[in-house]
Design brief:
CATH architecture of the largest domain: Beta Barrel
Shape: elongated
Helix content: 10-25%
Strand order of the largest sheet: 1-5-2-4-3-6
Structural class: alpha+beta
CATH topology of the largest domain: Barwin-like endoglucanases
Number of strands: 10
CATH class of the largest domain: Mainly Beta
Number of domains: 2
Length: 226
């Protein structure tokens, strides 16, 4: 009986320690997935994550080589070369970063910082942290260097099905990881239910297409929007 009591106490202590070790971040704010204004002074609250290896040395969405130690970041909509001040709301630390990539593509996250930027605001250990973003310098020309001929939008298509249920199942499977995923219903031109992600410029669409292939082994296609 004494041995049984000791075992029960040890199990209870282990369970309590496990619960204390788990960190529960607050739910994403309502603004975490919306398009952010790119004008100087615009601000929004959300959650930040960061990335480093194995992306170090790879090409970013704007064509640069990603350096995990430089103060850069990925955002879904802000023009490239926009400067953003990111404040870690857990400790008040701030870092200024330049947008040179697209992401994050995980639901509920607002910005992906480089590893170097994440280190500046002490969020390496947490991995994800609540932050406040403020535009401190607009991109040159307000377009991040895009030319008029690049303002054609594309979607990334993961699959097409004759069954709506099959399409919705695929959407639900990828929804936790990729934002802006939806099912496009049949039209006069096509009887299929198409599972697609977002609207983006061609370079950004190619980036997502490559990400799907590398990380999820999905042969997605890029489709131009009319």
């Amino acid at each position: 009986m004494r041995r049984l009591m000791i075992m029960l106490i040890l199990i209870a202590m282990s369970s309590a320690c496990a619960k204390r070790a788990r960190v529960q971040l607050p739910d994403p704010t309502p603004t975490a997935g919306v398009v952010m204004a790119s004008s100087e002074g615009a601000a929004v609250d959300g959650r930040a994550s960061y990335y480093g290896d194995p992306y170090h040395g790879r090409t970013t969405a704007n064509g640069e080589t990603f350096d995990k130690n430089k103060l850069t970041a990925a955002h879904r909509t802000l023009p490239f070369n926009t400067w953003v001040r990111v404040e870690n709301q857990l400790n008040g630390k701030k870092v200024d970063v330049r947008i040179n990539d697209r992401g994050p593509f995980v639901g509920g996250r607002l910005i992906d910082l480089s590893e170097g930027a994440a280190r500046e605001i002490d969020m390496i250990r947490a991995g994800v942290a609540p932050v406040r973003l403020e535009i401190i310098k607009e991109a040159p020309g307000g377009t991040g260097g895009r030319s008029i001929t690049e303002d054609v939008f594309y979607v990334i298509q993961l699959g097409a099905f004759g069954s709506e249920q099959a399409a919705q199942n695929l959407r639900r499977n990828f929804e936790p990881k990729y934002t802006g995923i939806y099912v496009d219903r049949p039209t006069g031109d096509s009887p299929l239910y198409k599972v697609r992600i977002g609207r983006s410029l061609l370079r950004e669409a190619r980036f997502i297409q490559d990400l799907l292939k590398r990380e999820d082994n999905v042969d997605a296609i890029v489709v131009q929007m009319n």
